[in-house]
Amino acid sequence: MRRPLIAGNWKMRLELGSARELVSGISQSIPPHASAALDVAVCPPFVYLHPLAEALDDGPIQLGAQDVYFEAQGAFTGEVSAAMLADVGVKYVIIGHSERRHTIGHLEDDYMINLKLRAAQKAGLTPILCVGETLAQRQAEQTMDVLAFQLTAGLLGAAPRSADELVIAYEPVWAIGTGHNATAAQAQEAHAHLRAVLRQFVGGRAEQIRILYGGSMKPDNARELISQPDVDGGLVGGASLKADAFCGIIQAALAAMG
To answer: What is the reported pTM?
Structure first.
């Protein structure tokens, strides 16, 4: 059985005081036995990574970043390298999030996402590669083709040698912050398809790589989603900003494991 991962993506939210309060609240609310069964991570804005690394201090929560640049160093104003993230204690890094693909700045393409994934792997970080279809693509019945293309493009030349070198997150773009959720059956269909594509890269190791659901997971739908055979946790947005909601998802994950 794959070890679930519950990762909170804070996006551009919170200030340092409230960020410290949040990780403290989560740490105090996580059941003592949870660390033996699953992984928990938070992904705050860049400016809070170092102080939160100190606050977490080998506790039950691991640290993740929301993005990374693919160059090791140079004249890239405003960017942060994978080595810099590793230097401050980051373990995971989100790559290719739907907001970066579709709404922020220059709109990242699959080539740039592939370069970022390679840079993260080289620095010893575990990339959380995000893939997912828009509403128009789902309505056009292109979901499976989109997922296969994005996953294939992201992993070209960067197939993981072990399950620890990659996490995938399925983000149905139409279900993020819209009030609409994918059903558990829709999530399972997409996750199973992603795992089938992944087998083409790594063979049997595909059964060990975690695929998270990233479409508005909440305490009230988390157990049903994580109970699906190919759903291995969640990349959580809004619900990760409140300790009780985030820990509710952790509890749901534990319950789903039986």
So the answer is: 0.97
